[in-house]
Amino acid sequence: MQYILDGFVEAFYLIFSFDPEIFQIVGLSLFVSLTSTLISTVIGVPLGILLGINNFRGKRTVSRFLYTFMSFPPVIIGLFTALFLARSGPLGQFRLMYTPTAMIIAQMVLVTPIIMGIVFNHASNSGYDVVQTGKTLGANRINILTLLILELKGGIMIALVTGFGRAISEVGAVMIVGGNIKGFTRVMTTFIAMNNNMGQYSVSIAMGIILMTISFLTNSILYHFSEGAKYEDRD
Amino acid sequence: MKIETNHIVKKYGDKVVLDLNGQYSRLLFESGKITGIIGSNGSGKTTLMKIMAGLISAIDGEVRYDGQTFDQDIAMKITYANQRPVLFSRSIYENIAYPLRIRKYPEEEINRIVRGLLEEFEIADIQKQNAKHLSGGESQKTALARALSFSPEVVFLDEPTASIDPKSVQVIEAALKRRNADTGLTVIIITHNLAQAFRLCDRLVFLNQGECLLYDTTEKMRQAQNTTIQEFISFNAF
Q1: Which NCBIfam families does this chain map to (chain A) (predicted)?
Q2: Which residues contact A186 (CB under 8 A, 6 or more apart)?
Q3: What is the ipTM of this complex?
């Protein structure tokens, strides 16, 4: 029990010592996860809306695939991304393996179905009615797209929160494609896993506290907007 | 705006839900008139209205609007509201202002029009409320105020007063009659309430199992000899 308490004490000392390595790791984690979430949003939101508001043959099959991809284990995604990016793989010529770019790609593959699936679900429930109503009021395509994004913004925010949460907290994919190289591809989760294996619990706890704080702050900000979207104008 | 339908046919799968042929293959909805579409459930009323409003396509036949086919220009001049209005997640004021904003009306003009409609539909005191949290009558009045805000030439209404309180029905009917008399608004309305149809409409279309059995004045509808129409009228009397 004592070593856990000692770990917490050391953790706080480490946080407030402003160690440059810690800052570098936190900065890279945020960069990789925010970038992958942003790219996944650009891909997943329009596709989710498009699939959700249109009725077409095979829509159920598409939704089943989508929901399956939403729960794919990160290590499997890391493995497949690594197979593609490895020197002998189809994208080997780009030399992306063990770089932050490879980590962004892996997280993007992980997060895109999550964002797309949640947006798809919201768009399927209410998107069609919004489109039809917009049309009856004379809205053109751009008006309807804007209207859809505004009407589904609560769902989109929830998708972003979930997607970012998944990206920042996963360890399997970034470990495989990033390699946990000090000063280059080491992120918070791989740092925690490595130090835990080495028995250095205090630094693991310290990084854990930082990771939870960042997750809490980021999710609070996004949650604030999603709740705002839900309850705005309510008297 | 005059609307003319010519031999409209619509199928869902293999089932023909609407087939306007014979004597009533061509229906002319005159400009500035209030026309009711009546008939039992599954008679094709909503399908006909959605085709005329440009929301769904017929598999055969055509609709002409002052002689033209449906396009974005026509879409900007007509509107449609049904018994389950889809209001946007914003205030009542902003819902009513929406059609004016997409038409780029100046802010003062938007304010003047919206305030007038809020008073007319007796919803001024709740204008700041989010439209997602309204009662049936308030929702319907908001939806109709929104539909009329940009002064459309034609309004399609699919059972707009079903399941709302009598006071709200009165407000909605009065607004429609006023617009029709003052601006020559063409109203095409589906209703199950025959008393309302006789109260509001100049002409009535009677549909039965996807076919038109009669298209004439309300007086002619009362005197119709067709058994199906007589049954419909007698059921409504109770």
Answers
A1: ABC_perm1 (NF038017)
A2: A25, A28, A178, A180, A194
A3: 0.84
Question: Which DSSP letter does residue B130 get?
Answer: B
Closest in A129, A132, A137 to B146, CB measured:
A137
Cβ atoms of A178 and A100 within 8 Å: the answer is: yes
Q: In what order do the strands lie in the sheet with B186-190?
A: B78-82, B154-158, B186-190, B34-38, B203-208, B211-217
Q: What is the chain B residue with the closest CA to A148?
A: B88
Number of domains chain A is built from: 1
How distant is the Cα of A151 from the closest Cα of chain B, in angstroms? Answer: 6
Q: Give yes or no for a contact between B114 and B90, defined as CB atoms under 8 angstroms apart.
A: no
Q: Is the pTM of this model over 0.80?
A: no
Range of the domain at A81: 2-234
CATH number at residue A121: 1.10.3720.10
Q: Pick from B75, B88, B129: which is nearest to A138 by CB?
A: B75
The per-residue pLDDT for range A90-147, each reduced to its tens digit, is: 999 999 999 999 999 999 999 999 999 999 999 998 888 899 999 999 999 899 989 9
Rounded to whole angstroms, the Cα distance separating B209 from B212 reads 8
Asked if A177 and A81 touch (Cβ cutoff 8 Å), the reply is: yes
- As given in the structure block, the two tokens for residue B198 are 């006789």
Q: Which of residues 118-147 of B touch A (CB under 8 A)?
A: 128-130, 133, 146-147
Measured between CA atoms, the residue of chain B closest to residue A134 is B99
pLDDT tens for A134-178 read: 999 999 989 998 999 999 988 898 899 899 999 999 999 999 999
CA dist B128 to A112, B146, B223, Å? Answer: 37, 15, 48
Tokens 């034609």, residue located = B154
8 Å CB contact of A232 and B130: yes
**Least Cα separation, residue B130 to chain A (angstroms):** 5
